[in-house]
């Protein structure tokens, strides 16, 4: 069996993330680090990213040839694009609650979580044909969908915990797993 390594990296922070808004095709808020992020990895890798500006800008920080993969595009937020969670809580509380509770719901007129998961699952299957290391710069929801694909079913045996690993869980009405970002020297925080 040939080995495939996949490193998923969330794009750098945007104003929409800071303001708790559904994204548009906005740029990253941070400046490029002083060195290439490619030095974070030991061996050669294939670099891929979603088509949005924020993923392309973040991927460029690797100083490496980039392949744009439309399967890594962000979720289609439909008419919620650019709207804040607070506005939706005030103006469309039932629609927002339906979307949070039902993975097949798409009250915004865009892509449902279930559709996103299917797209990402198909992308993961496509990676199995080519061994090697893939570094994919993408979006929080795409990374969530990939994680859900990996841990479905027999999740216990799908998780590797390395020595001194830290798992950050938070509770605010529901348990959430928090994955820390890479420390980028030279980028503004």
Automatic annotation (TrEMBL):
It comes from the Bacteria. Pfam families: His_Phos_1 (PF00300). This is Putative phosphoglycerate mutase.
């Amino acid at each position: 069996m040939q080995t495939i390594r996949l490193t998923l990296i969330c794009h750098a922070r945007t104003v929409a993330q800071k303001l708790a808004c559904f994204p548009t095709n906005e740029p990253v808020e941070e400046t490029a680090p002083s060195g290439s992020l490619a030095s974070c990895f030991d061996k050669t890798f294939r670099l891929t990213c979603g088509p949005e500006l924020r993923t392309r800008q973040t991927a460029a920080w690797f100083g490496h040839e980039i392949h744009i993969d439309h399967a890594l595009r962000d979720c289609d937020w439909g008419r919620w694009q650019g709207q804040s969670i607070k506005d939706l809580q005030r103006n469309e509380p039932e629609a927002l609650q339906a979307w949070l509770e039902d993975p097949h719901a798409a009250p915004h007129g865009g892509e449902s979580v279930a559709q996103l998961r299917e797209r990402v699952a198909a992308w993961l299957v496509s990676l199995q044909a080519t061994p090697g290391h893939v570094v994919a710069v993408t979006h929080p929801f795409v990374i969530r969908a990939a994680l859900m694909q990996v841990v479905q079913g027999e999740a216990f045996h799908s998780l590797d915990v390395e020595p001194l690993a830290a798992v950050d869980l938070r509770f605010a009405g529901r348990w959430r797993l928090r994955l820390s970002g890479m420390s980028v020297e030279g980028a503004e925080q």
